Amino acid sequence: MDILSLDLPGIRKVASGKVREIFDLGEHLLLVATDRISAFDCILPNAIPEKGRVLNTLSAHWFERFGFVENHVVTTDFAEFPSSLAGFRAQLEGRSMVVRKAKPLPVECVVRGYLAGSGWKEYQASRTICGIALPEGLQQASMLPETLFTPSTKAESGHDMNIGWEECRRLVGADVAEQVRALSIRIYEAGRAHAAERGIIVADTKFEFGLLEGRVILIDECLTPDSSRFWPANDYAPGMSPPSFDKQFVRDYLETLDWDKTPPAPQLPAEVVQRTSEKYLEALQRLTS
Hints:
Blueprint: E1 12-16, E2 20-24, E3 28-33, E4 38-39, E5 42-43, H1 51-65, E6 73-75, H2 89-92, E7 96-100, E8 103-104, E9 109-114, H3 117-126, E10 128-129, E11 132-133, E12 143-149, E13 152-154, E14 160-162, H4 165-172, H5 174-196, E15 200-212, E16 215-219, E17 228-232, H6 248-255, H7 270-288
Antiparallel strand pairs: 1-2, 2-3, 3-7, 4-5, 6-7, 8-15, 9-12, 9-15, 10-11, 13-14, 15-16, 15-17
Helix pairs in contact: 1-7, 4-5
């Protein structure tokens, strides 16, 4: 069953994001990963089969693996969901989790290990990433001399906005900023090492954190093809944009169109939908097998 949008009669929906539907269960929240896909901050009209299950299963895998950071998961087992959800098994099983309510921090914690995407464009212009100076001579997809923490904040509408370290400290407080920077780099490097053993390079990723009773905890998703740039190690070579397991495949197709990257987004051809689904499923299989 492909799911583009979801309502659960009798269960209050509190938010609908680019991919996830969020419902209020009282003490906890229900996060449901749909099969929506977005690119260039636009939600596309197609469902990507199995995408929601991949995101949910992969996030659950990492949340369980990284015992050094507290996270928001209560359970991903439908058998342990509240009885009020019993009639929605077909819609929820495998693509949802019950989570604790945390206050999200107003920053996205972006971590970069390789020179790609907007970072590569900035480096070409100024030899920097998010204002951080880098050495001369790096190529597209080069491994960076060290892992970089480059936070961003979401505008009310439109694209995420990169911010400097001092602005990050101002927004969340110096102590919390230090915690999320250290945790973000540690999670990324642990995930990158695990993925490397399975033939995947994690070029960059982003995390979200929240506060629960004053403690910093990891929320939302973790090291998925939606939040990360995954490259097959056997096709990697500096100086070119490697093929990917993430939605870069969709972005690359959209770049071939005469589309101004504003809604409404165009339909994806069936072969792009199928290949994208296959990419997501292959990433899941490699990382969790």
